[in-house]
Amino acid sequence: MHxxxxxxxxxxxxxxxxxxxxxxxxxxxxxxLSTWNPRDFTHNKHRRVxxxxxxxxxGMVMQVQPLRTAIQMAISVxxxxxxxxxxxxxxxxxxQNGVQTLLNYPRLLMVAGRYEGIDERLIEQDIDEEWxxxxxxxxxxxxxxxxxxxxxxxxxxxALGHQESATTDSFYNxxxxxxxxxxxxxxxxxxxxxxxxxxxxxQIARWRHKQALGKTWRRCPQLLEQLELTAEQQQLxxx
Length: 239
Ligand code: SAM
Description:
Elements: E1 2-6, H1 20-27, E2 32-36, E3 50-51, E4 61-62, H2 64-78, E5 83-93, H3 96-103, E6 107-112, H4 120-126, E7 129-132, H5 142-153, H6 165-168, E8 186-187, E9 190-191, H7 201-219, H8 221-225, H9 231-238
Parallel strand pairs: 1-2, 1-6, 5-6, 5-7
Antiparallel strand pairs: 3-4, 8-9
The protein binds S-adenosylmethionine.
The site of S-adenosylmethionine has 19 residues, from strand 5.
Protein name: tRNA (guanine-N(1)-)-methyltransferase
Catalytic activity: guanosine(37) in tRNA + S-adenosyl-L-methionine = N(1)-methylguanosine(37) in tRNA + S-adenosyl-L-homocysteine + H(+)
Function: Specifically methylates guanosine-37 in various tRNAs.
């Protein structure tokens, strides 16, 4: 997978290279990450990328020309079939279904806005889709891009140490994850559930599945409305 980001602050994306799963995936080439700065494509002396909004009002708007040229440059490197998205609080809400949707695009270009956002004509003509990471407003699209890139990386083959990790995480199969414990067995009176020390793998799987169902019911009951238990999960509940 090759992801490009159009951003005024390319150095922010370096946070993905700091450590952990994202850094390892980038080092090993499981994901290629490239950035383009619209400031490098301006035609004015001061390298300005923004101007005042028509109709008046506060803030500045990112102009079409530097962003359009940056997008065209990025597409010439990534490929003509690149899917172009604009990070925006007005876009489709990013969730686990969104992860699976975006994984279908081997070449993805993310446009990170700043100021009041980008000129609407760019959205109409150059952008395939808008995506939001939640109903709140950030100062820029870079953090949103990084959130999405991190979530995608977890699903790239060989990105996780234990490949099954992603499939037992919350939201996979429509459930929240079960609780996790590690040493010590007892901590100021708080004990690890005895079943987890039993060595009985079938019983442990059943307990974990019930815990996941219970947590989902308490915290995200809407997930249960769409849940279809697999034959294996139904078997676990009847044992
Ligand atoms: N005036 C815009 C609005 O109200 O829709 C908000 C502009 S915001 C200050 C600047 C940039 O941050 C946006 O262009 C977008 O790229 C990014 N951004 C802000 N909130 C976001 C969110 N929830 N999800 C994705 N990107 C976001």
